[in-house]
Amino acid sequence: MFWSNYFIPTLKDTASEDAQVISNSLMLKSGMIRKNASGIYTWLPLGLRVLNKVENIVREEMNNAGAHEVLMPMVQPKDLWNESKRWDKFGPELLRFKDRHDRDFCLGPTHEEVITDLIKNNVKSYKELPLNIYQIQTKFRDEIRPRYGVMRSREFLMKDSYSFHLSEESLEETYQIMRNAYSKIFERIGLDFKIVKADSGAIGGDKSEEFHVLAENGEDTLAVSDKSDYAVNAELLLENGQDSKSLVGQESPDGNGLLEITKGIEVGHIFQLGKLYSENMNATVLDDSGKAKNMHMGCYGIGISRIVAAAIEQNFDDKGIIWPKSISPFDLNIITIGADKDKNIEASSRKLYKELTQKGFEVVLDDRDDGFGKKIKDSELIGVPVSIVFGKNFTDHKKVEIIFRNGEKVASALNEVEEII
RNA sequence: CGGGGUAUAGCGCAGUCUGGUAGCGCACUCGCUUUGGGAGCGAGUGGUCGUAGGUUCAAAUCCUACUACCCCGACCA
């Protein structure tokens, strides 16, 4: 990718009102996103690269966990939501509208209805279970107050999966598989996270746990034990109006250690739904004695777009974003300085670009007609882990300078570059 | 929905109190000089001041209504 032909509209400033939370400010400044309406964003090329990387890691781990990808409709008919009794229950967060025939529809905030309908019409025998189906798709929730950029937006990208089982034991087994897959996803991305017990909320069901990325700007307050791995969403321990600070120093409910308070961003949530939906929607299979049984269900969500913001909240400095390597939009940024003075610079930088690209690195070549200051500032802002500079030192001594995002600099001959990075 | 704000050039802002030729910085275009920490000089482009009404000789500025957006709260896989 040549920067001069690419579309990375970086900004020096954002409106003070948009700068309330660091990830939003940096995503706007680095040219990753632009706002279209409250809680609704366009993903620009740079942002989309990151979003796609997160998406692909999630997809790989879902496939490894034995889940199968589908794509369900975003537009859903009222009938289905009547079956689950949620058309009336869901409230104004469900964006409803009518088609030209005056029929009621909504934009899917989640897909329990669609998937349950699909499975009950196409799976008849216990022999076809367990089944774990997922999709990666845009969700719409008409939040009362969208905020913090893509962290709490109305339209967002989510991976949601749903599992179907004959028995509770089978559900428990898949639940654990998904729990492990989720842990692996956040480990692979390189985020500091915690699994906490949670309220299952409007979705309903028996058991649920949330995955939180730990960050000061998190919307949720977590209570964690200082001795054991006990962790819980603090709201579960609080009486009405009680301050979460009052939990600090209390004995952990698991009897092991004292509670501490930390802030988290909820990026994943896994549920054991039990038979809630299968009973409401009459989703059954025949068991080995030929009797119709309501299926046990689990559902598992990950906020793909929210992970991007959460990763920034956990990895930034005063210069900009510091991407974990796993989701950086580029591995390397090759910067040329004064290329029209020294024709060698253009030729050599393009040659290196080509070589590294062929070796599998994702490289951007900053060939813009600008000085060092602007280019390195942009490189730091967009958070690329490594910059390689062709400048004076190359003209004089045939050496490039390798600058890591942490500020370390190394002069290097061209044939040593690959080793150093 | 309650409370608090904001809306003027692509972006960031001043001007509004006290009505009188639409401003600044950045960006952008052209030229020349530059090119290792957001370059310099010169010349330019770009706005019916959120929308609709009203007051006035005259409205970005005063009045009324509306809309959008942001923050706090309630809410929230």
Description:
The chain is α+β, with helices and mostly antiparallel strands and 421 residues long. It folds into two domains: 3-317, BirA Bifunctional Protein, domain 2, CATH 3.30.930; 330-420, Rossmann fold (3-Layer(aba) Sandwich). It is built from twelve helices and 23 strands. Strands 3, 7, 8, 9, 10, 11, 12, 13 and 16 form a nine-stranded mixed β-sheet that branches. Strands 20-19-21-22-23 form a five-stranded mixed β-sheet, sandwiched between helices. A hairpin with a 5-residue loop joins strand 11 (220-225) and strand 12 (231-233). The radius of gyration is 25 Å and the shape is elongated. The mean pLDDT is 93. The chain binds one RNA strand of 77 nucleotides through residues 9, 11-18, 20, 35, 37-38, 91, 93, 109-110, 141, 143-145, 147, 152, 158, 160, 198-203, 208, 210, 219, 266, 268-271, 299, 301, 303, 337-341, 369-378, 389, 391-393, 401.
